[in-house]
Task: inverse folding
C-alpha cells in the first residue's frame, strides 16, 4: 500500500498495473507533485498502463503551477518499458513529456523521439525511493 506522506514529490517511483482500478490511489500519489514545476515519475516497474492512467498524467500536468516568473512545467517519465512506451507514443505523450526507455531499441529510427534522460538531473533533489505498488 502506498503511503503518500512518505514520498518525495520530485521523484515518484511507481510499479504494477496502472489501470482504472488503481486510479484513485494513483491520483492521490500524483497530487503530491502538483505544487512542483518539475517532476520525475519512475515507471521502471510499471508493466501495464491504460487510458485512466494517461488521464491522471494529463491532470497532473494541467495542475502544475504556471506563471510569468515560473519555469514551464516538466514531467519526465523514466524507466519506461516498451509496452508502456508504445501507448505513450500512440497517445502523443512524447510531445508533452520527456520519455526515457529502459530498452535502447525504443530509440530505433522510425519509433519516435530517442530517450534524452540518463541519470540524475539538477532539478531532482533526492534519489528515488523504493518503488510503490499502486493497488491491484
Result:
Amino acid at each position: 500500500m502506498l503511503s503518500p506522506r512518505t514520498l518525495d514529490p520530485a521523484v515518484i517511483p511507481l510499479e504494477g498495473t496502472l489501470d482504472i482500478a488503481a486510479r484513485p490511489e494513483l491520483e492521490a500519489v500524483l497530487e503530491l507533485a502538483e505544487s512542483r514545476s518539475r517532476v520525475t515519475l519512475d515507471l521502471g516497474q510499471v508493466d501495464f498502463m491504460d487510458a485512466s492512467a494517461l488521464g491522471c498524467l494529463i491532470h497532473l500536468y494541467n495542475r502544475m503551477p504556471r506563471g510569468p516568473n515560473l519555469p514551464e512545467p516538466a514531467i519526465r517519465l523514466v524507466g519506461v518499458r516498451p509496452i508502456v512506451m508504445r501507448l505513450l507514443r500512440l497517445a502523443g505523450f512524447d510531445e508533452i513529456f520527456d520519455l526515457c526507455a529502459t530498452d535502447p531499441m525504443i530509440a530505433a529510427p522510425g519509433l519516435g523521439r530517442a530517450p534524452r534522460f540518463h541519470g540524475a538531473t539538477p532539478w531532482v533533489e533526492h534519489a528515488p525511493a523504493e518503488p510503490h505498488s499502486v493497488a491491484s
Q: What stands out?
A: Residues 4-117 form a domain with the Transcription Regulator spoIIAA fold (CATH 3.30.750.24). Residues 1-8, 104-129 have pLDDT under 50 and may be disordered.
